[in-house]
User: What shape does this take?
Amino acid sequence: MIRRYDIYLNLPATGAVLAANMAIIEESNRVTAIGFRYHSEYLNNPRAVSLDPALMPLSTMEYRWDMPTGLPAILDDYLPDRWGRKVLNRLALYREQKRLSSNSVIDILSLMGSSVIGAISIVPKGETPVYGVGCSIEMLPQAEQAAQDVEHLSANTATLDEMSLLHLANHGSGVGGARPKALVYDSSGAYLAKFNRHADQYNNARIELACLRMAKAAGIECFEGHVAVGINGREVLLLDRFDLTANGSRHHMITINGLLKEPKTLADTGQSFRYDDVLHLLKLYSTQFSRDRQQLVKQMLFNRAIHNKDDHERNFSLLYRGDGYVLSPAYDMVPSFERGAYHLAGFGCSPNPPTPTEAATLKRLFGLTQTDIQECANAVSAAVNRWPEFADSAGVSEQDMNNVKQYFCL
Assistant: This one.
């Protein structure tokens, strides 16, 4: 089976333009070949930007991978992760009475909706791209209830409301990560809605909001949001989106995971992930390296300080902001209640990043001077020491505030 696609890019300077063509060949629901070529008119555009500076620099050549063990970043970042695939599998069962093959990129693309994060839209060849911003906030209760049902119902039970499931599939499948979520909008803006789960060890919506405010106080660029209450008796975190612009265009994003792929096989890195890997990519591609290096150090120290051990390759991205790639605003920074395990991102030869106190004693860190290191460490420590203040501002319960605080490590 072969399918051909057009890849559109919707940047502030150009609007939605046809950037590339792609072909996917599958046998037995597995990708056997992928071909990619930039569109000639796009290459002639002085504002053209590489969709993947590591594997697909701007060129007239065709990029081709035969029998890849992974996917190129533009596909891997675009396709849903565990949560989105669970939604699409439910939709396939409900609407077509068949099981979705998670190995079939063609099947997954056929079921995805138009609401995705980032500036890329992948459509069947000849079709027009649609850049949806999600469902109306009025549909949030239906999407949230469908999300809860998808989380808890067995794969063979089809008791979901069809319209709710369609809304969730259209506006919640094109978002990465494992946590239930959807894209929504109201008259004030567009948001990434993150739903609480019954298995959560704390009120994730309010804890994450408090952590974002605390990170911003430490000098880390990040976007906040607000908590919607009374959604089927639960609370939902509505995060402001940093991929959208005021004129309706987008910022192109590529994850660190995508940039680290093995060039010949497209396999994800088989090595242990380190903050040093992010630094190396910033040296190669960031147009604001000095600024991004300090941001990375603060993110690293902040994640260690709040016990966020989920600092994996997909939780860091580069963002194209008109004149080049820069480190994206920080996201997915929440504490873990797991003791003993290592961080998913190490540092140097250590499985864990340093604490702010440890970092302050270092003479060199990612090329920063000791003065700059101490400034970063002090900024993180000062912000985290104000945890009760940020927890209170976000409406965190006293029990959750104290439970989270006991895991902090300064």
Notes: The radius of gyration is 21 Å. DSSP finds 14 helices and 13 strands in the chain. Residues 2-124 form one domain. Residues 154-159 have pLDDT under 50 and may be disordered.
